[in-house]
Amino acid sequence: MGEKHLSLRDRKWKEFRIGDLFTVTYGKFIKDNKSGDIPYITTTAKNNGIGGYVKGTPMYTGNKITIASDGSVGASFYQDKPFSTSNIVSTLTPNSGTILNRYIALFICTLIPEEAKKYNYGKKFSVDRVRETLLGLPITPEGQPDYAFMEQYIRERARL
C-alpha cells in the first residue's frame, strides 16, 4: 500500500498581504557588478537571480526572498547567504511572527510569479505593488499562516 502524502486540497486557505508578513525594500544600482564576491541579485530568472558579484558590504543578510520587479517580473528566489540587490529587485525580510527558512521560502516563491503576471515591463511589480499583493496560504485553526505545513509539504516533495 502506498504512503499518504500531504495534500494542498485538505487545507483551509486564506489570503495574506505580503506587506503584513514581510518588510519589502529595494536595493540600489551598482554599476561594477562583476568584480566582487557578494552575490548581486538582478531581474534575471536564472541562477537564483544572481546577475553578478559586487565588492563591499552586503546590503542584506541571508534568509530572505527576492522578487524581480522588472525584466523577468515576479521571478522569486530564496537567498540563504548575505547579498546585495539592484534597485529594481524587491527584498522580503520576515516581520516579527513570520517564520522563514529554505522550505517555507520555496513554498512562497512558487506563489509569487502567478500573482505577478498582471505586471510587465511597462507596469513594474514595484515595492508598493509587492506589499499590496495578496498570497493565498494554508492556515492553522487559529487562521494564521501554517508555516509548519508549508515546510513539511516542501520537504516531502524534495524526497519524492
Structural write-up:
With 160 residues, this protein is of the alpha+beta class. 24% of the residues lie in helices and 26% in strands. The chain is built from 4 helices and 9 strands; from the N terminus they run E-H-E-E-E-E-E-E-E-H-H-E-H. It has a 4-stranded antiparallel sheet. Strands 4-3-7 form a 3-stranded mixed sheet, with no helix packed on it. Helix 2 packs across helix 4. The longest helix has 15 residues, at 102-116. The chain is globular, with a radius of gyration of 16 Å. The chain starts with 12 loop residues before the first strand and ends with a helix.
Concise synopsis of the structure shown:
By secondary structure, the chain is α+β, with helices and mostly antiparallel strands. The protein has helices spanning 18-21, 102-116, 127-132, 147-159; strands at residues 13-17, 22-26, 38-41, 50-54, 64-68, 76-79, 84-85, 89-94, 134-138. It is built from four helices and nine strands, in the order βαβββββββααβα.
